[in-house]
Amino acid sequence: MRIYSTPESEAAGEMTVLSIVETLIAMGIYVAIWWLTGSLLHLAIAAIAAPLTLLRTEESVELGLKWIRFRADSLWDRLYWLPEIATWFLSIPMIVCICVFAILVRFTATFAILVRHPIYTLQTIPRNWIRIVLCLDVCRAPEVIPGVDATERAPTELSSLFSTYSLVEAVKESIRKNGFIVVLAAPGMCLLLFLGYLPPTAIARFQ
């Protein structure tokens, strides 16, 4: 058992101490929220978000990448000629739109494969549950689009738009040049981090 997760440990399905600690902390937080508010809304949100990861398959990953790759190439074709000032002005709504679009792609690709191969997709739940709850922790950045962080980091590749690293770097640069980007982009980025870290493990931990 490792202390924290790495790409190698994730691929091998190794449990980590940090992931177990996170599980216990998440359980405490969710129980505390219920105890203080009497509401189960946070669990309802987790239940809605859980299919994004618990129903993940290789086919849904490939389908999502296919859709994203087409849109990313089309977007770069339209923006490459713009002067820098216009590009950075457009980056403000672009980052927000990318966040929303990424979530929609994850939902749609997962649902499409579930409809095509329902039994196969449902059979992936135990494996995904173990990977998410016992093998992943905060040392592994959440994926905006599954599989996109494994692509090349060339300026015209889809990873330059939709990888967690690239989105964070884009937000940092936009904050430096346009401080008010925080107001527009922060909610979308927080939602992506929320979907990447908390809901899947939370819903699994309470089942």
Summarize the structure.
The chain is built from eleven helices and no strands.
List key phrases describing it:
207 residues; mainly alpha; 11 helices
How would you characterize the overall build of this protein?
- The chain is mostly helical and 207 residues long.
- The protein has one domain.
- 75% of the residues lie in helices and 0% in strands.
- It contains eleven helices and no strands.
- It has helices at 7-12, 17-37, 41-49, 51-54, 58-79, 84-116, 118-123, 125-135, 159-162, 164-177, 181-205.
- Helix 2 (17-37) packs across helix 11 (181-205).
- The protein is globular.
The biggest sheet amounts to: none
How many DSSP E strands? Answer: 0
Indicate the proportion of strand residues: under 5%
Mean pLDDT: 69
Q: What percent of the residues sit in helical stretches (DSSP H or I)?
A: over 70%
Radius of gyration: 18 Å
How far the N terminus sits from the C terminus, by CA atoms, comes to 24 Å
Compute the number of helices: 11
- Pick out the low-confidence regions: 152-160, 195-207
Q: What count of domains describes the coordinates?
A: 1
Which series of helices and strands comes N to C?
HHHHHHHHHHH
Oligomer: single chain
Shape: globular
Structural class call reads mainly alpha
